[in-house]
């Protein structure tokens, strides 16, 4: 049976049982668990330092009430990074290539920021729909445009993460297939293609981390507008 390049993005099923929940749960096992000791090992110390620096940089421009989201957004960042990085390993599945999962993460969090803004400061939240100094004739048009842009935000969050990871995985598979086919025919070209594949894999590692950071960073910016 001929396999499509897009078969790697199908949700894994074993004996009729979907393995999506398992794919979402296993990454948490890889993180070292905190201890009650005064001195931790190097890995746990590095993890704590990274979490502290990330939370500090992410919430520096956010007002004090928004700091309640620090644990949630930091956990989401680590969760997305682990899923994206593990998806680069051979014979693994990347749950974040599924638009349904990304939308399931983006839409509730975006909606929570909007509800917080409408509850705490409704005047300022609605004021974002109409820039100051707008001509009278453009007011209805701008309100419609800003409302559409507001509701597009969760869709943009989910599609951006899905598209970047899907494109990277497809490129890796295409170049790997080309290197395999060219190896018996043109070894020199195959070696050059394998070198490009190695560099592309390094780029995808960076993309996996950057896209997780961008996802959480945009959520923090939406939160900043509403607190």
UniProtKB/TrEMBL annotation:
The chain crosses the membrane at residues 12-31, 69-89, 101-118, 138-159, 171-199, 205-223. Signal peptide: none annotated. Component of the ATP synthase complex composed at least of ATP5F1A/subunit alpha, ATP5F1B/subunit beta, ATP5MC1/subunit c (homooctomer), MT-ATP6/subunit a, MT-ATP8/subunit 8, ATP5ME/subunit e, ATP5MF/subunit f, ATP5MG/subunit g, ATP5MK/subunit k, ATP5MJ/subunit j, ATP5F1C/subunit gamma, ATP5F1D/subunit delta, ATP5F1E/subunit epsilon, ATP5PF/subunit F6, ATP5PB/subunit b, ATP5PD/subunit d, ATP5PO/subunit OSCP. The gene is ATPase6. One of its GO terms (molecular function) is proton-transporting ATP synthase activity, rotational mechanism. Keywords: ATP synthesis, CF(0), Hydrogen ion transport, Ion transport, Membrane, Mitochondrion, Mitochondrion inner membrane, Transmembrane, Transmembrane helix, Transport. CDD domains: ATP-synt_Fo_a_6 (cd00310). It is a multi-pass membrane protein. NCBIfam families: ATP_synt_6_or_A. This is ATP synthase subunit a. It catalyses: H(+)(in) = H(+)(out). It comes from the Eukaryota. Belongs to the ATPase A chain family. PANTHER family: ATP SYNTHASE SUBUNIT A. GO terms for cellular component: mitochondrial inner membrane; proton-transporting ATP synthase complex. It is found in: Mitochondrion inner membrane. It holds the Pfam family ATP-synt_A.
């Amino acid at each position: 049976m001929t396999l499509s390049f897009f078969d790697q993005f199908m949700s894994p099923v074993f004996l009729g049982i979907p393995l999506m929940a398992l794919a979402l749960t296993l990454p948490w096992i890889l993180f070292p668990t905190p201890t009650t000791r005064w001195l931790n090992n190097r890995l746990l110390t590095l993890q704590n330092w990274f979490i502290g620096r990330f939370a500090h940089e992410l919430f520096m421009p956010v007002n004090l009430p928004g700091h309640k989201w620090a644990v949630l957004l930091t956990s989401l960042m680590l969760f997305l990074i682990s899923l994206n990085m593990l998806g680069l390993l051979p014979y693994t599945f990347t749950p974040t290539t599924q638009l349904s999962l990304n939308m399931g993460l983006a839409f509730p969090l975006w909606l929570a920021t909007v509800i917080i803004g409408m509850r705490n400061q409704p005047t300022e939240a609605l004021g974002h729909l109409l820039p100051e100094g707008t001509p009278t004739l453009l007011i209805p048009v701008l309100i419609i445009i800003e409302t559409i842009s507001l509701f597009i935000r969760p869709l943009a969050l989910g599609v951006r993460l899905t598209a970047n990871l899907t494109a990277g995985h497809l490129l890796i598979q295409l170049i790997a297939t080309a290197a395999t086919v060219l190896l018996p025919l043109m070894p020199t070209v195959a070696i050059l293609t394998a070198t490009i594949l190695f560099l592309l894999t390094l780029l995808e590692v960076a993309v996996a981390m950057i896209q997780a950071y961008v996802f959480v960073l945009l959520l923090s910016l939406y939160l900043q507008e509403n607190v």
